[in-house]
């Protein structure tokens, strides 16, 4: 079997590439390891930034974001005192929109499939071959266990951090950058009312954040020790700690539907391509979640790749594909810096015991500058919106 582009992985990255190239009249097959219900049920991110929104609007995919509210203000609660940051005012109205990742994924899948796209779930043992040559191919076992082979001109590796795509590149062809956080992250997903505004709370009891995930659900983050044992966090302890850290006695509790200690690593590979394989999204980079950039970088990469594939296929111009990695990495490093900056502000500014009194004061000064310097406010708001 033969197609133009094989996309490995049906997360936000792979589904965005697939929708964009399919609408552009380029043949494409998506291979996803899990079944549809699993992929559609994964709850992770909740905000798409302005730059990501533009990727969909430019492609005429407005319906993907139907009903998604704009999100232009966020609250930093410092020792119980609210400070509202008006991102919209500092970024010429360029703000993001609230949409749970699994809702976006669901809509990307139905848009692609209803439009005649070829998406194969439960594709096992995906392996990439001849990525260095002109005729790469992919082998896998289909949902019935039958071995299959797909020949292609280009491969899009959109299979996340643990996928096979990056692992198919000879290690000496990649430079890998890693950085580990000195604090741990604990996150819970709840069926409880979302906050009025996305909320980041600095508190002497440790950092906590609360973000909405649709009309009746929320995601909380709590700072914890690295390698924290989940067993120690009963539901009761979670709600007590949240009330304390958010300085909100009246915080409405609800069922906790998921709890996880997350590995807040920073990770980048350079280049994000090898031969005819192009890495997209988490397959190429991981940013700490607090900056809200993981999903948005995946969409940004996908937009760059789709444009470059169109130039290669329709205009016989390989230039944009050659530039793919450099174009994406510029934004990736910007967002690494932004995510780390924000992480340091909220963690160090919460926890003098871990950060030490000097870094604690620095973090508080950094945050204060957002409210005293219009230039600093603009720089922050531009990062939250994403590049124009
Ligand atoms: P995904 O979403 O992991 O999708 C990869 C897909 O590839 C499939 N796959 C394979 N398919 C075939 N063969 C194989 N060998 C395969 N191996 C894997 C997988 O089943 C899956 O369907 O990566 P993608 O598309 O690059 O998207 C990246 C985003 O999902 C990720 O960056 C964000 O979710 C990160 N993230 C957040 N990002 C934000 O922008 N804002 C947030 O608020 C936010 N919160 C979060 C997050 C990530 C979290 N996790 C994963 C720790 C909160 C959490 C809890």
UniProtKB/TrEMBL annotation:
Residues 2-334 form the FAD-binding domain. Keywords: NAD, Oxidoreductase. The keyword NAD applies. GO terms for molecular function: FAD binding; oxidoreductase activity. The keyword ATP-binding does not apply. Pfam families: FAD_binding_3. This is p-hydroxybenzoate hydroxylase. It comes from Saccharothrix espanaensis (strain ATCC 51144 / DSM 44229 / JCM 9112 / NBRC 15066 / NRRL 15764).
